[in-house]
Amino acid sequence: MTTPPVLLRAWYLVGGRLPVKYREWVFRQATKPTWLVWFVVRALVQVLPLTVVITLGLVWGLGSPFPLAVACGSLGLVVGVYFAVSYAIESTDHRMTKYGYPRAAASTFRKEQNTDTDRERARRYDEVWRQQG
């Protein structure tokens, strides 16, 4: 697995597409246990500049009070990140198809990785809470 240089990773973080030779690294990022955290960070980095522009536009362009403009910008940030996270699985799977992976490759891989962990959790739960007698 080839790891991209720092500048390319930063480009990927802000929403850019990496060359195909880094497809395994992208897949690893989309399937590791902390994939959702990185998805949220990526969404936040992508939405934040627009939020700042809107906030400054409200203050300088329309003469809105600064606290009101910050509140509007913050609400836009929350809604933008919420919307992105609402479709995190689908968005990540779609991104993987751009790198040549089959549909739902990332979510299927994560599901398979979690199967053993889920079975162990269910076994421990049953052991504690489903005792006979």
Distance between the termini: 53 Å
Structural class by SSE content: mainly alpha
- Ranges with pLDDT <50 over ≥5 residues? none
Q: State the share of residues found in helices, binned by percent.
A: over 70%
Number of helices: 6
Strand content: under 5%
Task: Output the radius of gyration.
Answer: 20 Å
What does this structure look like?
This protein is mainly α. The chain contains six helices and no strands. It has helices at residues 6-13, 23-31, 35-61, 66-86, 88-98, 105-129. Helix 3 (35-61) packs antiparallel against helix 4 (66-86). The model has no long low-confidence stretch (mean pLDDT 92).
Note the main attributes of this structure.
single chain; 133 residues; mainly alpha
How would you concisely characterize the structure shown here?
With 133 residues, this protein is mainly α.
Describe how the helices and strands are arranged:
Elements: H1 6-13, H2 23-31, H3 35-61, H4 66-86, H5 88-98, H6 105-129
Helix pairs in contact: 3-4
